[in-house]
Amino acid sequence: MISHVAGAAGVEEHPPFLLLAGFAESADGGWTFAFQCDLRMNDYGEDSNWPEGESYCVVNERGFTQYGCVREIEALGHVVRVDFTEDAVRDLQLADSEYEFRVAANDADMPRLLATLRRILTCGRPEYHPRILGM
User: Quick one: pLDDT at residue 106?
Assistant: First the structure.
């Protein structure tokens, strides 16, 4: 497991479409993980030929993106543990499949952050929704 201390964590909403929750080393840069969804994807077409694209995605600081790529997410206080799929490890070029984000940002609104993460990760095709614990 890779453990990071998140000096910055928060939520961005751009209604009625984009919803984003993220963790970063600091507000000025460093490593970044952004979880986002297009809320219109809850109206996906059953006959889609690219189902992952009709789900949430994770983007890192290098701009690499992977859709529907979280197997499990768990929150315990100010710690969020994420278990990524093997596709995410490959495409996001991760060092491990399991990451832990220890939110140290004093201004982090954890209830809002966790509620937004839940909303993002349950957006889109149900087969890509992760197991959600403690949120």
Answer: 84
DSSP 48-93: -S-GGGGB-EEEETT--EEES-EEEEEEETTEEEEEE-HHHHHHTT
Please provide the average confidence, as pLDDT, over all residues in the chain. 91
From the number of C-beta atoms within 10 Å of its C-beta (0-12, 13-18, 19+), residue 54 rates as buried
Q: What is the pLDDT of residues 103-127, one digit of tens each?
A: 998 889 999 999 999 999 998 888 8
Q: Tell me how far CA of residue 64 lies from CA of 12, 36, 69, 91, in angstroms.
A: 19, 13, 12, 7
Give residues with Cβ within 8 angstroms of 121, minimum separation 6. 35, 56, 70, 73, 129, 130, 132
What pTM does this model have?
0.91
Q: What span, in angstroms and rounded, lies between the C-alpha atoms of 8 and 103?
A: 7
DSSP code of 127? Answer: G
CA distance 120 to 99: 18
Are 128 and 55 in contact, with CB atoms under 8 Å apart?
Answer: yes
